[in-house]
Amino acid sequence: MKAEEKRKKFSSFIPHSSSFISQRVITGLILLVLVLAVLFVPHPLPLTLLVWALGIVGLWEYLRLVGVIGERRVEGEGLKEEAEAGGLSLPLSLSSLNSSSFIRLATSLLTFTLLIAGCYFRNLVLVLGSLCLPFVCFARDLFMFGRDPEGWSERQPVLGLFVAGPVYLGLALGLAVHYKVEGNLWPLIFVAACVWAGDTAAYYVGKALGKRSLHPLSPQKTWEGALGGLVIGALAAMVIGLLGGLFPWWLGFVLGLVINAVGQLGDLLESFLKRVAGVKDSGTIFPGHGGVLDRIDSLLFALPVYALISALLALL
Hints:
Layout: H1 2-40, H2 45-75, H3 77-86, H4 99-120, H5 124-144, H6 149-181, H7 186-209, E1 213-215, E2 218-222, H8 223-243, H9 249-277, H10 292-315
Antiparallel strand pairs: 1-2
Helix pairs in contact: 2-3, 2-4, 2-6, 2-9, 4-5, 4-6, 5-6, 6-10, 7-8, 7-9, 7-10, 8-9, 9-10
């Protein structure tokens, strides 16, 4: 009888596990096909629109995460109970937005939109102008200081988080648009291959050989997995660097080590945001994968660092 009960429990578990795996695989394949489709369309507009749409969702996820952090500082236990009960329940929900928070939210969304538009139109003035918008918002807050000094001081930690959001997502996604507009996809392929091959290798190496936890923020990640991902990511970068004529093999490998390491730091940063917010995933838009930030957190660090290093190498 006990054996029969165990068999039923085991059989009831298999469909759930298989369903999750299938869901994750199917979502991944759909995303891959979508990205490849817009990536290799000659005109840059489809990729730009996809990047903008994903960026807006990612920015919303980011503001939900840091909104929990910011509001906890102001409201304390009331929001803590809401976060524990609802996970990603947005403290910045439209029903609870005051005028200052609404202006900051609108400024963040507009800043990101104008930044992407500036990259698409290759307009440096538009790009730099968009990055000035959050400081206009800050100037307004300075003006409001005279009316409510105590309340202003309590709300200011949130302002920095609003300002950081468009920069956090906009730099990397804007670079993706820039490379597409310039007709040079190899840098995107180089960074993506380095990061994604490294992530895959880190997962399987960690499962097989992992013993030492990498960091408390990501207890499932191990040093063994991180090192395995670092090497495999660098090898993938070396191959793409040779195929695209970007770098000699040794420079592609070294740069791959740097890019993969930076990507892992980006992953840890998002883990930190989720840990403080008390949630497992940044969102649920991708079944089996989580949110936009969960999928691109490594690229958000890796792409800007690649652009900086390649620009410095061009000066040599």
